[in-house]
Amino acid sequence: MPDRSAEIAIVGAGPAGAHLASRLAADGRDVVLFDPKGAWEKPCGGGVPTRAIREFSFILESSSYPRKLVRQITMISPLDRRVTLRLDRPFAVYSRKVLNGLVLDRAIEAGAEFVRESVVDFAREGDGWIITTDQGNRWRVAFLIGADGAASPTRRRLVGIFPKRDLALAFGYNVLSEDAPSKTNGGNGIAQTGVDEVIVRFPRDFTGYLWAFPRPGVMNFGVASKLGERTSDELRRLLTDFVCDYYGGAMPDEERVSFFGAKIPTLDLVSWKDLKTVGEGWALIGDAAGFADPITGEGIYYAFKSGDLYADAVRDVSRMAGSSEVFQIAAGAYEKMWREAFGRDLEHASYRLPHFYHGRFIGRIFTDAMILLARYHKGVRTILGKALVGEQSYVTLKRDLLRRAWQVF
Ligand SMILES: Cc1cc2nc3c(=O)[nH]c(=O)nc-3n(C[C@H](O)[C@H](O)[C@H](O)COP(=O)(O)OP(=O)(O)OC[C@H]3O[C@@H](n4cnc5c(N)ncnc54)[C@H](O)[C@@H]3O)c2cc1C
Q1: Which of 19, 321, 326, 330 could cysteine-pair with 307, CB 3.0–4.6 Å?
Q2: CA-closest candidate to residue 96, choices 218, 276, 237
Q3: CB of 211 within 8 A of CB of 243?
Q4: pTM here?
Q5: Of 217, 242, 265, at which residue does a domain stop?
């Protein structure tokens, strides 16, 4: 016999799982949320796009969760051309431990039961599940949500792992920094300007990019590229060179630096059509479902949004159906909702990905052309700025850029 029971179990207390837990618990649902790590420094840039801040206003509401608001981005092209964009609306950069803490605190306050244990097994019993944790505890639940990230063990059991073509590999360094701004100049001209600024560099012949994100007390550096395109050694070398440039030619002292690496779901075009995110008694959200932008690797917005959509579906269905079917009927509605809300745009991003990193525009490498045009045209700068903070649809990106580009000539 299981020791405990709940209506719905959520595996993983990242932004997707913890946000869904807080929404369901606030609506009076009996929710158990599992995560052995609680709030932790998940490998990530921690960039929370403007769209996420706008739609989920609670993210910025409390000053107890420190973050940086970034209003300036410098982009460097494969030909070393650069442009600095000032953003009308900032985006936020968080330590992931802080961001996850913010969302988890809300879930607990809303009444979700948080269990700091890992789910190691689950099995169908009747019309529900028996879940077993690494502490040997057993829970009986009616419905199961997999919110356990890109390497999701829940997904592995229910659907299978993501194939190589659907993943990017990312490495990074967190470097402890003085928050007082420095004025030094980087060896390769990457200047530390004294302003909280994000730097994005597009290496040549590379499906991905390098970044420098300022967080409170930390500079976060990273590189992400399609899995299998470059070896781990090559990626690490690129990243180390980038960090050295930033600090004027040498890596910072070892004790200030920590290294991280992880995978990001970046679905191939062919994977979207049959992407399975719901089944009998279960649904997947966030990275576990495959929801990250294939071009930028940005997944925090989609983690929040997919959790939110499932909670909306449960709320809508609750008004119509008997309690035992609510979560299953909601899962069907959720599948339609995510495809409509962002699925089409992410699928289009998968289609655009080869053109974005390897295509040509007005006779130049695409990213170089964008940066060149942005230097001379405010309209192009606006579109680029919106694309970088997640406010520009990929479906219309090329059309919008072309319209503005013609105005330059
Ligand atoms: C290097 C890197 C940089 C990135 N930078 C950005 C960025 O700047 N901006 C952005 O928007 N996105 C970024 N992303 C993507 C972003 O990190 C993810 O999209 C986001 O964290 C997804 O949230 P999630 O809640 O779905 O999953 P996660 O945040 O991965 O959370 C999953 C949780 O599940 C838990 N878990 C795993 N297994 C179990 C188990 N068996 N039982 C219980 N719990 C379990 C884990 O402990 C974890 O807390 C980056 C990713 C990487 C790898």
Answers
A1: 19
A2: 218
A3: no
A4: 0.94
A5: 265
Give the position, in ligand 1's atom list, of the atom nearest the Cα of 263: 53
pLDDT tens column, 207-245? 999 999 999 999 999 999 999 999 999 999 999 999 999
Question: If you measure from the C-alpha of residue 14 to the centroid of ligand 1, how many angstroms do you get, rounded to a whole number?
Answer: 6
Residues 74 and 170 in one domain: yes
* Nearest atom in ligand 1 to 154's CA: 41
Q: Does 307 lie in the same domain as 215?
A: no
* Domain edge (last residue) among 217, 235, 265: 265
Ligand 1: residue of 41, 267, 300 to mutate (most ligand atoms within 8 A of CB) is: 300
Residues with a CB atom less than 6 Å from ligand 1 = 11-17, 34-37, 42-47, 118-119, 147-149, 153, 170, 172, 222, 262, 264, 286-288, 292, 297-301, 303
- The CATH number that applies at residue 223 is 3.30.9
User: Percentage of the chain surpassing pLDDT 90?
Assistant: 83
* C-alpha distances in Å from residue 335, one per residue of 148, 262, 276, 313, 355: 18, 27, 9, 10, 28
Are 54 and 190 members of one domain?
A: yes
Co-location of 249 and 345 in the same domain: no
- Pick the closest to residue 404 from 367, 363, 376, 364 (CA basis): 376
Specify whether 131 is located in the same domain as 250: no
Question: Which atom of ligand 1 lies nearest, measured to the CA of 150?
Answer: 30
Q: For residue 3, what pLDDT band results from cuts at 50, 70 and 90?
A: confident
Within 8 A by CB and 6+ apart from 76, the residues are 82, 190, 199, 200, 201, 202, 371
pLDDT in tens, 335-391: 999 999 999 999 999 999 999 999 998 899 999 999 999 998 888 888 887 777 777
Ligand 1: distance of its center to the CA of 305 in Å? 14
Predicted confidence (pLDDT) per residue in 98-141, tens digit: 999 999 999 999 999 999 999 999 999 999 999 999 999 999 99
Domain ranges, residue 388: 359-408
Ligand 1 centroid distance, CA of 402 (Å): 35
Name which residue sits closest to atom 6 of ligand 1, judged by CA. Answer: 45
Specify whether 171 is located in the same domain as 204: yes
Instruction: Assess whether 403 and 363 both reside in one domain.
Output: yes
Structural domain total, the chain: 3
